Amino acid sequence: MALLPILNYPDPRLRTIAKPVKEVTAEIKTLIADMIETMYDAQGIGLAASQVDRHIQLIVMDLSENSPRVFINPKVTPLVEEKQPYEEGCLSVPEVYDSVERPKKVRIEALDEHGKKIDEEVEGLLAVCIQHEMDHLNGVIFVDYLSRLKQSRARDKVRKVIKIREKQGEQTADKQPQ
Ligand code: ZN
């Protein structure tokens, strides 16, 4: 397994529309395993393939820290008009958090990693998370829902965080004997 580099906002590749998965090949299975490992390493609860520059309809998620879930070719339909705010964050927009309103209850139709059908009506964090990840597959990022000012602040913040991380990376690299 391998850690995959995560694209950072405002990378234009994050705007790519994901294509459906035709078949769960060995290559897709490896990608799923790598995405799960990458999500855990980055301490995230969800990751869309778009975020690792693979533009196919694939999402991994773990809301309970020990049971990763896989959604292939997901379709998400709101079941209520009522929206609920939730403080969202994103591995592609590090250290930026803000409130986004989304429908409270949705239906998820998808396939899991074994090709088994998923058809669930969900609320709470799973409803928030699947809508956030679905957006990634459509080239949408949660900061798109915020004001222009907040979007510009998010870009500045991400730039700073990346700089700090690059510095830390260099330091760690120095310490590791080759
Ligand atoms: Zn995200």
Q: Give the overall pLDDT as a whole number.
A: 95
Can you tell me the overall shape? Answer: globular
Give the strand line-up of the largest sheet: 1-2-3-6-7
Task: Compute the CA-based radius of gyration.
Answer: 17 Å
Helix content: 25-40%
Reported for the largest beta sheet, the result is: 5 strands, antiparallel
The topology string of helices and strands comes to: HEEEEEEEHH
Terminal Cα span: 21 Å
Structural class of the secondary structure composition? alpha+beta
Question: Count of DSSP E strands?
Answer: 7
Which ions, cofactors or small ligands are bound in this entry? Answer: zinc ion
Number of helices: 3
The percentage of residues in β strands lies in 25-35%
As residue ranges, the low-confidence spans are none
SSE diagram, text form:
Blueprint: H1 26-41, E1 46-48, E2 58-61, E3 69-78, E4 83-90, E5 93-103, E6 106-111, E7 117-122, H2 124-137, H3 148-175
Antiparallel strand pairs: 1-2, 2-3, 3-6, 4-5, 6-7
The protein binds zinc ion (ZN).
Zinc ion (ZN) is lined by residues 90-92, 132, 136.
Brief overview, please?
With 178 residues, the protein is of the alpha+beta class. The protein is 33% helix and 27% strand.
Describe the structure.
There is one protein chain. By secondary structure, the protein is α+β, with helices and mostly antiparallel strands. Helix content is 33%, strand content 27%. The chain has a 5-stranded antiparallel sheet with strand order 1-2-3-6-7. The chain starts with 25 loop residues before the first helix and ends with a helix. The mean pLDDT is 95. Zinc ion is lined by residues 90-92, 132, 136.
